[in-house]
Specification:
The chain has about 160 residues and is α+β, with helices and mostly antiparallel strands. The protein has two domains: about 80 residues, Beta-grasp domain (Ubiquitin-like (UB roll)); about 70 residues, [2Fe-2S]-binding domain (DNA polymerase, domain 1). Helix content is about 35%, strand content about 15%. It has five helices and five strands. It has a five-stranded mixed β-sheet with strand order 2-1-5-3-4, sandwiched between helices. Helix 2 crosses helix 5. The protein is globular, with a radius of gyration of 15 Å. The termini are far apart. The structure holds FE2/S2 (inorganic) cluster (2 copies). The site of one FE2/S2 (inorganic) cluster (FES) has 11 residues, from loops.
Length: about 160
Amino acid sequence: MRKINCIVNSKPVSLEVEDGRTLVDMLRQDLGLTGTKKGCGTGDCGACTVLLDGVSVNSCICLAALADGHEITTIEGLQKDGKLSDIQQAFIDHGAVQCGFCSPGMIMSAEYLLENNPDPSDEEIRRALSGNLCRCTGYQQIVDAVRDVAASRRQAD
Ligand code: FES
Ligand code: FES
C-alpha cells in the first residue's frame, strides 16, 4: 500500500492505494468520481482523460502513485457553483453528447486544447481530439462545439 496526498478538483485528498492501482480506478472506485469513464483500459480510447497538473493524460495507463503531490482535475471539477462549464454546455447545445460515454474524456481534452491554443483551426481541434474515440456522433458536432467555445472565450477576453 502507498499513501497519496494530492489535490483533486481543488480539494486536498489523502488516501492509501495498492501498489499498481491505476489513476482511473483510484478516481472512480476510491473517490467515487465516476464521471471519468474507463473504456479500453489500454490507453487507446481517451474515455479516461483527466488533467494532471493541467496536462491531459489517459488515467487508465497512469499509476495512482503519480498523483502524489500533484493536482488532478476531472470532469466533475469543471462545473462551478452547480453551473456547467462553457464546454460542457456547448456539447449539450450542439448535440455533441449522445450515449455520453466519450463525453467526459472528450471535454477534458478540449479543455486542455483551449488552454493551450485559444484559436484552433478545425484541423487542430480534430488533431487534439484524435485520441478520444466516439462511436455515436460522427465527431462534427464535437468540433462545432469546441470551435464555438473558442470563439466565445476569445470574445470575452
Ligand atoms: S480507458 Fe483509458 S484510454 Fe481507454
Ligand atoms: S457520444 Fe457515444 S461514444 Fe461519443
